[in-house]
Amino acid sequence: MVILEYSVDKPLNREPPLQSLVSSFITTKGYDRNHGPIPHIDPDKHQVKVSGLIKKPLSLSIAQLHSFPQHSVTCALQCAGNRRHTMRTQLKEVDGIDWGEGAVMNCTWRGPLLLSILNAAGLSTPSQPEAHVAFSCFQTEVQDASWYGGSISLSRAMDPLAEVVLALEMNGKPLPINHGFPVRVVVPGVAGARSVKWLDGITVQARESENFYQQLDYKILPPEATDRKSAEEYWGKTPAIMDMPVNSVIAVPGSGGRVGRDGEGFVEVRGYALPGGKDGPVVKVEVSGDEGLTWRECELSKEEGGGKWCWVLWRARVRVEVGKGRRVLSRATDLGGGQQARKPEWNLRGVAYNGYGEVHDLEVV
User: Fold this and answer.
1) Phi-psi region of 256 (alpha: psi -120 to 50; beta: other; left: phi over 0)
2) Omega into 253 within 30° of 0, i.e. cis?
3) For residue 115, what is the enclosing H or E element?
4) What average pLDDT does the segment 248-269 reach?
5) If you count Cβ atoms within 10 Å of the first and of the last residue's Cβ in the chain, which end, N or C, has fewer?
6) Among 37-46, 67-76, 92-101, 124-133, which stretch is predicted with the lowest mean pLDDT?
7) Which of 363, 360, 361, 357 is nearest to 101 (CA)?
8) How far is 225 from 228, CA to CA, in rounded Å?
9) Is residue 362 a contact partner of residue 106, using CB atoms and an 8 Å limit?
């Protein structure tokens, strides 16, 4: 019997303080996002079943997953609702957990590539353009369904450049229980909802997952969907979130703080920036202390092991006038040319918010 920690009614959802989050390029204590309890699974008994449109159904133990060639990828994993509080306060009310700007983690994941597992199973439908690879966790009930699931396109799953892994390790150690031990999916560049934890099923199928969290959540609904009732007609018409947008956040100083200028009238600011989907890495971050009239380019961290899927940590000195109620803005640009807009369009679930990074109500002395 699987031991469960926390509950369906009170799952573990938390994020670290921003100042500690940006203290290291590799995240050791990241956010937790759950829709139900955390299962404590015996790795010696756990099996991942591979089924669907394949020639050879598989049931793989953790030891067998270790026997495949192992691949490491360093990437930022981000909750689709990261920065929801900002959308709620800058635009209008949204429906969802009031995430701040810390629901993101930059880690090194290691395990077999998903395409290695699918090649071992032998695809029987390589040419269906709508085909998906669905992931499932049947270990526990969740808030809105009897199990948790999600899917990505088969073409993405089979693309070696997409680097989708079945992670057995995080930052050189076995996965922590709260991050999916003994095995989870990691889909770089894609909303964290698709990176299913405590993975027990992989299914190649003709269409995307029918799970609640693929069909009735984690979608950027049109602005006409203003409440849960009016949203009903749009769920089936709106695609599931995949690639997350380019983004940046100012972590230090925090809003409402008191900061001193140096002898030249500058304030130091620090933060993180994320590329959009496959278009990384971030190539430029700029900050403004005069409401966007002028912008100053930031210094980006040069980290060993960084790549297209990673965040960048940045710092800059920006000129801000002495006084109360001051504001500093940030914006990022990635290699694909994606750049943050000042304010994106509102959506009911408050997902994929990527307006300018901002700290406000600063007292500058």
Assistant:
1) left
2) yes
3) helix 114-121
4) 96
5) N
6) 124-133
7) 357
8) 7
9) no
